[in-house]
Write a structure and sequence with these properties.
It contains 9 helices and 8 strands. The protein is an alpha/beta fold. Strands 1-2-3-4-5-6-7-8 form an 8-stranded parallel beta sheet. Strand 7, helix 7 and strand 8 form a beta-alpha-beta unit. It holds the Pfam family Amidohydro_2.
């Protein structure tokens, strides 16, 4: 089973996405399930996880409504106000009744404060999230946020969290440190996972190849092992530097010299376990 553990939908007529502007080019329009469905079929992808694209209740409700309509959607990563723990608790009581609701994400990189995620009230909100058995997707855009992951992992040890997009390593610049050291430090905590996703938009947008990714993915494999790594397309953001098929093909190319067991974990098994997709 292949699981795309990171894709988005947005409808500009139903939900407000203030971050999405005309300068975003090809992704500045509505993207919904009927457009993705044939791409999944062609790529041999069985299930997906829809990840929030806005810090709003409306976006979460929109994703849950979409999940109920398509049998290939296995889960939804929504949003609650983590900096308002009491309100987060109330909303989680509501959302966790829905079988598709698997976890929470917050657009940390849109916050003016790069240290927003380690504020005391947010840590309390994450503890509330953990009490419901939910997961947390960390938008750890390097270099501002990855450094905080060990702190989160230590202070909320019963919260399983996943670093989106390997924290956007400096692929375009062929950079390495301090990204590598920070990722390795985060991987030392058993409750921290990572997504092999969004790497094409961290690369040269026109001339990238799978070889550009390999050293970064291999490094993540060394520290997380395949049991804590999962694949995601980051569609439709992926369209900024390619398309669904090119991302799939590049990922498969990088994983080609991994064992069958490792490939099965990264391409589906880890996501299934992390997000409890089979429950």
């Amino acid at each position: 089973m292949i699981v795309d553990a990171h894709q988005h939908f947005w409808n500009l007529d139903k939900v407000a996405y203030p971050w999405l502007k005309p300068e975003h080019g090809v992704i500045y329009r509505t993207f919904e399930a009927p457009e993705l469905e044939p791409l999944l079929r062609d790529a041999g992808v069985d299930k997906t996880v829809i990840v929030q694209a806005m810090d709003s209740i409306e976006d979460t409700e929109y994703m849950l409504e979409t999940a109920a309509q398509y049998d290939w959607v296995a889960g939804v990563v929504g949003w609650v106000p983590l900096d308002r723990p009491s309100e987060a608790y109330r909303l989680l009581q509501q959302f966790t009744r829905n079988r598709y609701f698997k976890g929470v994400r917050h657009l940390i990189h849109e916050e003016a404060d790069p240290d927003w995620i380690v504020r005391p009230e947010v840590i309390e909100g994450l503890k509330v999230l953990a009490s419901f058995g939910m997961t947390f997707d960390v938008v750890a855009v390097f270099p501002n946020h990855l450094k905080h992951v060990p702190f989160l992992a230590a202070h909320v040890p019963n919260l399983n969290m996943v670093i989106d997009h390997l924290a956007k390593p400096p692929i375009r610049e062929k950079g390495w440190e301090p990204w590598a050291s920070q990722l390795a430090e985060a991987a030392a905590y058993p409750n921290v996972y990572a997504k092999i996703s969004g790497l094409n938009t961290a690369s040269d947008p026109v001339h990238w190849t799978a070889l550009d990714w390999k050293r970064y993915i291999d490094f993540a494999r060394t520290h997380f092992t395949s049991e804590r790594l999962m694949f995601g397309s980051d569609w439709p953001v992926a369209n900024l530097a390619g398309d669904y098929q090119t991302v799939i093909e590049a990922t498969m190319s990088v994983l080609a010299d991994y064992s069958e067991e490792e490939r099965q974990a990264i391409l589906g098994g880890t996501a299934d376990r992390f997000y409890r997709l089979s429950e």
